[in-house]
Amino acid sequence: MSGQISSTYASKKRGAGMPGMRGLDHFGMTVPDMEQAVDFFCDVLGCQELYQLGSFRVDEGDWMTENLNVHARAEITNMRMIRCGHGTNIELFEYSAPDKRVELPRNSDNGSSHLCIYVDNIFTAVDYLNSQGVKVLGEPSLLSGAEAGEYWCYFLSPWGAQLELVSYPCGRGYEQHTKTRLWDTRDPAA
Q: Could you give the CA distance from residue 165 to residue 152 in angstroms, rounded to a whole number?
């Protein structure tokens, strides 16, 4: 990796937070073609589709704007829920809307996001993605500092959404500085 990432360790006392917060239940993602997205997540990445939610629209009033922050006449044309291994679930949406934007944000754009998938061996996973015709961005890179021991590599879905692979089979550097651990897909119950 040609750039440098600096590491600091949390020391600021934080508030108690939202009562009853347990963790992420799902990550929502709007896709341009539901069948393509489900095929990619399930057939290529290995997720499992659990159920379909159908479509949803409101013909009058501002319910869609007030509750979902979309155009009042936006319509969810398709919704699906998939499970991704031992990690969070993914809720896929396909929308039609009078003011729909189709350009995907880059990582540097406000509001951008990406899904990160843990794999046991990043080099094997990258070879597999390449064999499936998936666009892989660069080669796996090894991090240092708080994330020492972690390899990462970005790749793109067929519609251009950014995804990431990570692997840290021996743990990460921050673990030497605190007993508190990030949630770890290798040990979901911990």
A: 5
Question: Which string of DSSP letters, residue by residue, matches 61-102?
Answer: SSHHHHHHSS-TT-EEEEEEEEE-TTS-EEEEEEEE-TT---
| 114-134 pLDDT tens trace | 999 999 999 999 999 999 999
Strand 115-118 to 162-167 pairing: parallel
pTM exceeds cut of 0.85: yes
Q: Which CATH number fits domain 103-190: 3.40.50.12280, 3.10.180.10, 3.30.420.40, 3.90.1170.20?
A: 3.10.180.10
Phi and psi (nearest 5°) for 28?
-95, 140
For the chain, the domains span 25-100, 103-190
